[in-house]
Amino acid sequence: MNFNDAYEMTINGRGVAASATIDVVNPATGETFARAPDCSPQQLDEAVATARAAFKSWRNTPIEERQAMVRKAGEALAANAEALARLFTREQGRPVDAALTEVHGAAQWMQAVSQMSPPVHVSEDSDAQFIETRYVPLGVICAIAPWNFPVTLAMWKVAPALVAGNTMVLKPSPFTPLCTLKIGELFRDIFPPGVLNIISGGDQLGPQMTSHPGFAKISFTGSTATGKSVLASAAKDLKRVTLELGGNDAAIVMPDVDLDAVAQKIFFGAFYNTAQICVATKRLYVHEDVYDGLRDRLAAIAKAVKVGDGAEQGTVLGPIQNQRQYERVMNLLDDAKKSNLTLLQGADVPANGGYFIPVTIVDNPPEDSRVVQEEAFGPILPMLKFSDVDDVIDRANASDYGLAGAVWSKDTDKAVEIARRIETGTVWINQNLNLRPDTAFGGHKQSGFGVENGMEGLLEYMVPQAIYVARG
Ligand code: NAD
């Protein structure tokens, strides 16, 4: 089955078009292939009003019923995974198999979150009094998602927010609105009208949403720069916020690693999804004893990996998702070239108007070069030499970001010791990119504010209420 080409928003349980549209470009060709509604301010007002109205009954719907609907929504995603994956590849660029993995992963995530319930704490149960603290929902959630994992990162918000008893207005990135709009269509018969509204639009819509007084909370995933504007906008009426932001993750490779066993894993930890992952390895610190060996292996993998249209058989890495990001990454690459850094480039890329950039490894650049200091969010990986563990930990921590990181070593006790000294929300040892619905995920420093996932993530969609009952 394929979806039809009509893309509508979901407001109050109905499909809604807009008087204007935004173009959606296939990043593998640079051509517009679809149009999505450009939500008007009146339609935003209507979405928020309908979500506020729906909140009154949704918050009192038994949690078991809310969980059952979220579970059903996960099943609807899984049942439509192939069609969603094909559309995903056209709008996002990632190869179809990997797109399918994302859709199935999001479906499983919803199943897992649908089994979570907030705790109730009893702090006193005596003849004198009974004191209980329970968690209650906040109201209408403003959910804003980015383009790199458009389905997963949207469902990370939908599932816990709705289980917790909130209603929502969700906005996908203007670069990848289509799968989310179709998901809205798939969920229309599952949730009561107004519980989950999905709107799309251009660059003006995000700020209109975050400054809208009808929201109780903003859950935002995107860049650190935008996150700061979101936080400022939320201050006006003290909206709650969760911000999942950028990272410049360091991986530390110790001298005892088995290079043949780890090279592939390290490569894809950096370049999967064409390196457009918040938690990708973005600075690779390698002990001098194994530096050359790892560099040569990574360069060989880069040469062998096919970069191209995700719809073509055999493509491993797709294009950069959009022109704006392509220009940013090209600017970083030009800067590396102008600075005479040594670049090891992988297989040739198509020259067809698509946003393709060859896999690029930068061989031991200075620590203060832009390619080390900035989040590339594209396929340029700086590899840096180290000899002293204390020094490399300092270098890894010398960043305003603090999202994730990795340590590679056969000595897992030593690796855990290093991990505990890394100032990030997640650290992997001999693995990477592994996240779970039952485990809190969030950034330290300027990589975030609050967390998603785990019980901590669920409770960010709720607020405690203490009830004191006098007895006797
Ligand atoms: P972005 O900040 O440009 O956009 C994210 C979303 O915010 C989009 O939907 C956009 O339309 C909207 N937006 C833009 N300006 C806004 C404003 N002023 N107010 C409100 N909303 C606004 O980010 P992006 O380029 O789509 O995503 C890439 C960035 O996201 C990278 O920095 C990456 O590391 C980060 N990211 C973080 C996580 C995480 O979980 N920590 C996950 C994925 C991506």
Automatic annotation (TrEMBL):
It comes from Camelimonas fluminis. Belongs to the aldehyde dehydrogenase family. The active site is at E244. This is Aldehyde dehydrogenase family protein. Residues 19-465 form the Aldehyde dehydrogenase domain. Keywords: Oxidoreductase.
